[in-house]
Write a structure and sequence with these properties.
By secondary structure, this protein is mainly α. It is built from 4 helices and no strands. The radius of gyration is 15 Å and the shape is elongated.
Length: 112
């Protein structure tokens, strides 16, 4: 899945963006975490719906919660991996909280 591959690259490569990338506001990385994992959740839910041929129907609460849980679990594994890799990245509980926030918000959106 392209969404997951992009997140893995951005979170596990020591310097995924060029050095001359402009700095944003303080805490922008937390917003980026929420957006990335919200996007991942939404991708999971769209794929789930498409593979089940659920055109015009809503996903069940169970399927939605499963997509959210998988995204949060991926975020947790990434944070643990970052802290264990020792390549200049560090695991952060606050990042994981924002991963979860993004996943939950995406789970509340209507899936096309």
């Amino acid at each position: 899945m392209v969404c997951l591959a992009a997140i893995l690259y951005l979170t596990l490569v020591p310097e995924p963006l060029p050095e001359d990338t402009p700095r944003l506001f303080p805490g922008a990385d937390k917003v980026v975490h929420a957006i990335m994992f919200g996007g991942l959740t939404y991708c999971f839910l769209v794929d789930f719906k498409r593979k089940r041929g659920m055109t015009g129907r809503h996903l069940s609460l169970r399927a939605t919660l499963f997509g959210i849980a998988v995204s949060i679990a991926v975020g947790g594994v990434i944070e643990i991996t970052q802290s264990e890799m020792q390549i200049g990245r560090s695991g952060d509980v606050v990042d994981l909280l924002f991963d979860g926030l993004g996943a939950i918000v995406a789970g509340l959106l209507p899936v096309i």
